[in-house]
Specification:
Radius of gyration: 17 Å
CATH topology: Alpha-Beta Plaits
Number of helices: 3
Number of strands: 10
Helix content: 10-25%
Distance between the termini: 61 Å
CATH architecture: 2-Layer Sandwich
Number of domains: 1
Order of helices and strands: HEEHHEEEEEEEE
CATH class: Alpha Beta
Structural class: alpha+beta
Strand content: 35-45%
């Protein structure tokens, strides 16, 4: 019995295993520069599995080729993250990624963004892997911060930032 308990504890503490599936996306609009910045945080193993299942084959975001990883991350995020401001599609440019222990941060940005009052978000990252995936979104526009929790079956939502 003690061995079984120790095995379960070891699995829970293992960096390759986590008992919850969540991503966090931070969106910030800078009205002075007319720029929109996006930072997405994922567990590395989940993102590797999603990219592999999308047809990329074996993927190692920690030790793999940085150029290949950048392309794979950019392609994955373009397929699963979309933004619109007041009905205008935003073209996000992937600017890079950073490893953070067992997590990875992906950074995107868009320029020449006019002031807006409504932000529409499509954010179905990792939904293809697990039905219990939770994607948390935090957006700051003109000093107002709003948050939303996105779970299946929903893949899209809107936030209003009317003055």
């Amino acid at each position: 019995m003690m061995l079984l308990w120790m095995l379960r504890l070891g699995l829970l503490l293992s960096p390759a295993f986590h008992p919850y599936y969540v991503s966090v996306t931070e969106i910030e609009y800078n009205p002075q520069k007319r720029e929109l910045g996006v930072a997405c945080k994922f567990f590395i193993d989940d993102l590797e599995e999603a990219i592999r299942d999308a047809g990329a084959g074996k993927t190692d975001l920690i030790k793999g080729d940085k150029t290949r990883n950048t392309r794979l991350l950019e392609d994955y995020l373009k397929a699963h993250l979309g933004l619109m401001t007041d009905g205008r599609k935003i073209d996000l440019a992937f600017i890079g990624y950073e490893l953070d222990q067992e997590a990875i941060w992906c950074f995107l940005e868009a320029g020449s963004i006019q002031s807006f009052s409504r932000l529409n978000i499509r954010g179905d990252m990792l939904f293809e892997l697990r039905k219990d995936q939770i994607n948390l979104f935090h957006a700051t526009v003109n000093g107002v911060r709003k948050s939303h929790r996105l779970t299946l079956p929903d893949r899209m939502f809107s936030m209003d930032f009317k003055p």
